[in-house]
Amino acid sequence: MFQPYTQRLLAACLGAATLATVPLAAQAADKWPTKPLRLIIPFAAGGNTDVVARLIAPHIEKAVGQTVVVENRPGAAGNIAAEFVAKADADGYTFLMGTVGTQAINYSIYKDIRFKAADFAPVTLVASVPNVLVVTPSMPVKSVKELIEYGRKNPGKLSFASSGAGSSIHLSGEMFKSREKIDMVHVPYKGSALAVTDLIGGQVNLMFDNLPTSLPHIQTGKLRALAVTSAQRSTNLPDVPTMAEAGVPNFEAGSWFGVLAPRKTSPDIIARIDDAIQKAMAQPEMQKRVVELGAVPMVKGPKDFDAFIGTEIEKWKAVVKDANIEPN
Length: 328
Description:
The protein is an alpha/beta fold. It has 2 domains: 17-129 and 255-322, D-Maltodextrin-Binding Protein, domain 2 (3-Layer(aba) Sandwich), CATH 3.40.190; 131-228, Periplasmic binding protein-like II (D-Maltodextrin-Binding Protein, domain 2), CATH 3.40.190.10. Helix content is 45%, strand content 20%. Strands 1, 2, 3, 4, 5, 6, 7, 8, 9 and 10 form a 10-stranded mixed beta sheet that branches. Helix 7 (168-179) crosses helix 12. It is globular, with a radius of gyration of 23 Å. It starts with a helix and ends in a 6-residue tail after the last helix. Residues 1-28 form the signal peptide. This is Tricarboxylate transport protein TctC.
């Protein structure tokens, strides 16, 4: 028969053995968070991705009781930031504000990409930004139908601008070109602002721009909006039809933002961050602020966000293939 001391010693050993079988992520989640969290942004400060991240950060802070440091790591079309998070410790302290580029398009565009979709655990899809098909007012077209007819009658004479090769703006143009069998010339720029300037000046004919960049120029009449690429009309441009309404079905394209973590991050931690973001995005004031940016609240939890990313990867892979774009 065991003596009391022997019994205590055996119980301690059994307890230690049991603890050793508990995944480290679960043990870490038990005490999490004990220090500030980092939300990594793949682009420079001031853009929509950065602004949306800074809108949700205070709500996460309030929910978990720790500071959320928003950290910009721009470069390589977002790949620098995405790789950093993909290779970070899965301890619940590092997150990425991923985009359609970092999580969907770039896999088909870059040969030397050093991360993959399986390296991330989706947390929450937050919002999307539709593109808007805009033309210079000097163009003799006032609808998508008229633009298609003009393009087919004048092969090689249309040029479309983009914020850079491989962007959703570029690939939206390629998708339109491929589906409608229009011979158009792509003119890439280093950012939307430069592209829009030349579009207004008439150096290029059209562009599938992110709505927030072109919106002020549409409102002042410097650009003519023909359609938006979202499933529903934009509240900022209620009189502008969707591409489907304009006669081009199944044409949805644009940017989106969502929070992701390194793949092995504890599901409990992911659930807490998701809950904080979902509650924040449900607030009317937050929704109003997002809409004012030209974005659309588009909240999806981990499972739905994961499925959404898979669909986006396949969609843009097909566009890249149809456009004969060679990975660089």
